[in-house]
Design brief:
Low-confidence stretches: none
Radius of gyration: 30 Å
Order of helices and strands: HHHHH
Shape: elongated
Structural class: mainly alpha
Helix content: 40-55%
Mean pLDDT: 79
Distance between the termini: 60 Å
Largest sheet: none
Length: 120
């Protein structure tokens, strides 16, 4: 058990993952309890068996009860588009004021022209 403790302790100090596998009573839990005691960190134990699955650790699927409706999503999308339009209009006005461009800028055309397709 001293060797198991020493190797496990070195792994933990080097931030290496540890998987302890062995017969019942070989000292897996005791080593973990000792490391927890000497390092002053809490220990959480979970009894596993051959049918243990990840869902047993992190939980299963849960139903979503607070899903937004299509109307709510449409409203948020409209708000975002309106905010983008205001921002682009302000940018156009600033460009005109600095005489960088003459006349209003059609940002939709700029966006369509400069946006590469995902395949490019």
């Amino acid at each position: 058990m001293k060797r198991l403790y020493a190797l496990t302790d070195k792994c933990i100090k080097n931030k290496e993952p540890v998987l302890l596998v062995g017969e019942t009573g070989c000292g897996k839990t005791t080593v973990c309890q000792l490391i927890s005691l000497f390092e002053s960190v809490p220990i959480y134990t979970i009894s596993c068996h051959q049918n243990t699955e990840a869902a047993d650790f992190i939980g299963g699927l849960r139903t979503v009860t607070s899903r937004p409706t299509a109307k709510e999503l449409e409203g948020k999308l409209r708000e975002g588009i309106e905010e983008l339009a205001r921002t682009l209009e302000e940018a156009s006005e600033r460009l005109e004021a600095k005489e960088i461009v003459k006349g209003p800028v059609d940002f939709r055309a700029c966006l369509l022209y400069t946006s590469p397709s995902p395949r490019d």
